[in-house]
Amino acid sequence: MMLQPRFKDSIHFKNFWEKGNGKQLIDFSGAEVSFKNFEKFSHYFYHVDELGDDVIAEVYFTKKFHEASKEIEQYIRNGVSENDIAPESVKKLFKQTQAKPDWLDYNLIKSGAELCMRCNVDSLISLRDYCLMGGYDYAYLNKPLIVTEALKKGAVKRLSETLDFWVNVTRYDALEIHKKGYEFAIKTRLIHSYARLSIKKHYKNWDTENWGEPINSWDMMATYIGFSLVFLHSLHKLGNTFTLEEEKGIFHLWKYVGYLLGIPEELLPDHKKQAVEYFYLWTSIQPPSDKDSVLLAHSLLDESLENPILKFKFERRNLRYLHICCTWFLLDHEVCKRLQIPDVPMKNGFPKTKRILNKIFDFCMSRESRIQKGNNDQLKVLKDYLRVAKDSNFH
């Protein structure tokens, strides 16, 4: 199927790139956006991770789920060689993930991980109120979430899974082969394949021409640009500073995670200029929020009220208010209105206070202290979420 940048003349696209966050991203990165490379990337809208899909078909669809998962865990933790008695699809997958690409630099990954930890709660605000919430504005990107009934799963469970993944791939040495982050990347890759094949099997109304293949490679690129470029831009907006080494590191970390997840290497940007230019092309095939987007956005907002981590109702209402403030501060107002984010009084107060506090932290606390504190605080938040998710009735 031939794809065109069908929304390039739409109001939502123009406003984003000419006066909204898109314009800020161009200024932030020095990107030179155009459609000259559109055809180079657009075919990935119909491209998927066939290695992952083959493992699901050969292992998961021929055994009980828990038996297949146990088998794959052994391969992840112990490795697979050509001489092992393992399915051919498994050998091919692990031949790719166990091969370290020539460009891999663990020192850069360490710098990226340190930035994620050093920015502490701002990292979690950025992930939730900019990356995740902003992603809901792209209607076609969300279709796999909708058809797999993610809303029934609940935002608490979804957030705990996302946080579990993010924390475990952004710690020291996490992405070395057989370590925890490596394991999370492989498992996430197979979850994507399992979901994709299930959608294709059970959801007969999937609109491939408009929505692309379920969880296709181009949408995956956009998602991981969210974890690198959009995340970095959010930290910047909240008043965090970072070195050039840390900036390179965040892109390198997510480039390697993307590689482990089966995203084609040519879709994985090395720096912010490249990332903005890639993202520009992808946004031209995405319509703005629809009714499903609004449902997802409000499910995320209401998570603060439903989550029992905070004991008292007034604490939960206050947390929801703070997330709403950050969402208005980080996202375009046009996007917030499309997602029907409630307008609240003094919405710039909390984000602007955070900017001032970050200046003070930069002056008063050493980088090492901030990394250590950020790591501990993020692990504490993750522990609380996993405890709550474990106690829920969802299976």
Automatic annotation (TrEMBL):
Pfam short name (any one): MPAB_Lcp_cat
Domain ER-bound oxygenase mpaB/mpaB'/Rubber oxygenase catalytic: 153-343
Signal sequence range: none
Superkingdom classification of source: Bacteria
InterPro entries linked: Lcp-like, MPAB/Lcp_cat_dom
UniProt-recorded name of the protein: DUF2236 domain-containing protein
Originating species: Chryseobacterium gilvum
